[in-house]
Amino acid sequence: MVDVLHEIEAAVPALRRYARALTRDLDRADDLVQDCLERAIARRGLFRPKGPIRAWLFTILVNVHRNNLRGARRRGDMVDLEAIPEPSVPAPQPGHLALAELDRAIGALPLEQKEALLLVTLEGLPYAEAASILDIPLGTLMSRLGRARATLKTLTGAPSEPHLRTVK
Amino acid sequence: MSAVTRDTLMAYVDGGLPPAERTRVEAYLAETPEAAADIALMQRQTDAIRTLYGPVAAEPVPAHLSVDTLARKAEGARRRTWMNLAAALVLLAVGLGGGWMLRGQSDTPNIADRLIAEAVSAHTVFVAEKRHAVEVAGNDSEHLSSWLSNRLQTNLAMPDLSAQGLDFLGGRLLPAPEVPGGRAAQLMYEDASGARLTLYVTPSPGPNAPRYELANLGLDTALFWADNVISCTITAPYSAEKLQAIAHTVFAQLNPTMPAYES
Fold first, then answer.
1. Which residues of chain B neighbour A149 with C-beta distances below 8 Å?
2. What is the pLDDT of residue A144?
3. What pLDDT is attached to residue A168?
């Protein structure tokens, strides 16, 4: 039991990171993590370690987040203005501006694509683990990843490669 | 050699390929500049996402997210739940005892007393709930009305008690082995002071059921009423007089097709 708590504790920084990227909001992200931890702690007796505890925690987080969004939709919550993508302008140079644009683009991704993309890129999880967290087949995961990357490319205007340009 | 698909390229970027596959993809990239550009773009996306959000994991974890603190809080909450449950059982016993004392001439508690006991125990269990007091919230009153009506197989309107200072919180479906259909609806209301009133509505228990009973259960008063269509038990921490006044409004609205209530 104590070991489970230690393992949960070790996962908190990663859960906060993932929640922050999902919500792009510090308070909402930490509320989400708190909800997730409370559930995990209350149900840790039910957890049978057939996989990493990290995957179980991410599954809870994703489900809590989806539930929150469902509730928000029913209440007719306000839309984050920032989440509405601006017309894409090719970034003149890589750097801060491009990151802000990417942040907005990620906010504009459909939820299922965003969940998959962030598990694989930000958290660096193997495809199989990400697919099991989201409870989808591997092929579905890869198609969501592919679509997410294509959407990001469109929204951020796929900057031209700055380093490899040939000089004539 | 099979073709290098987009999925394979993506898996290459995401580190999901075995070494032999990696070598094959690298050979392909060397002679396919467009694929190399695709890969570079995907890699830049990954790097940028990590630059954007990666630092969050290095921030100190706020105190309220400490697993230790949360675990201690959960332990406390569990103990409180057990105490609530114990309190509910005591009250249920009181309710059943009350029913026994009300049994009148017959030897077994009559159906009204058994329904009152069910209603009081359901009342005690669910009014204590802060977050899950009701299954369907009162703001969805039309859905609730048709759902409960279907389940109870009788026409059930949600009474509006705002004139009595009671807000409608919502309702839930409960098992009721005592009555035909085996189901009861519990509707919950709350006044400005936070006191809660419940209606426990079932299909009519039958033509021989008593029409009306009042039970005083210490803190709560319960008022039972039945006709040929439904029975309803009102439970609230109110005086008998106040409950009777509310009952007039409830019975008039609960089933618009039935005759006016007379005490």
1. 10, 42, 45
2. 96
3. 47
Taking CA–CA distances from A4, the nearest residue in chain B reads B67
- Domain residue spans in chain A? 1-78, 83-159
Cβ of A121 and B45 within 8 Å? Answer: yes
Residues B220-224 have a mean pLDDT of 87
The listed CATH number (3.30.70.1110, 3.30.200.100, 3.40.50.2300, 2.40.70.10) that belongs to domain B67-254? 3.30.200.100
Cα nearest neighbour of B139 on chain A: A75
Count CB pairs under 8 A between chains A and B: 96
pLDDT per position as a tens digit, A22-75? 999 999 999 999 999 988 888 776 665 556 788 889 998 998 898 888 766 555
Radius of gyration (Cα) for chain B, nearest Å?
A: 31
What per-residue confidence (pLDDT) applies to B85? 60
Tokens of A165: 């340009």
- Could you identify the residue written with the tokens 């319960």? B222
A31 contacts chain B (CB < 8 A): no
- For residue A160, which of A55, A90, A89 has the smallest C-alpha distance? A90
Sequence spans of domains, chain B: 6-58, 67-254
Residue to substitute from A9, A32, A113, A163, interface B, most B β-carbons within 10 A: A9
B131, B157 contact by CB (below 8 A): no
Cβ-Cβ contacts under 8 Å for B66 (sequence gap 6 or more): A9
* B11 touching A (Cβ < 8 Å): yes
B208 has a pLDDT exceeding 60: yes
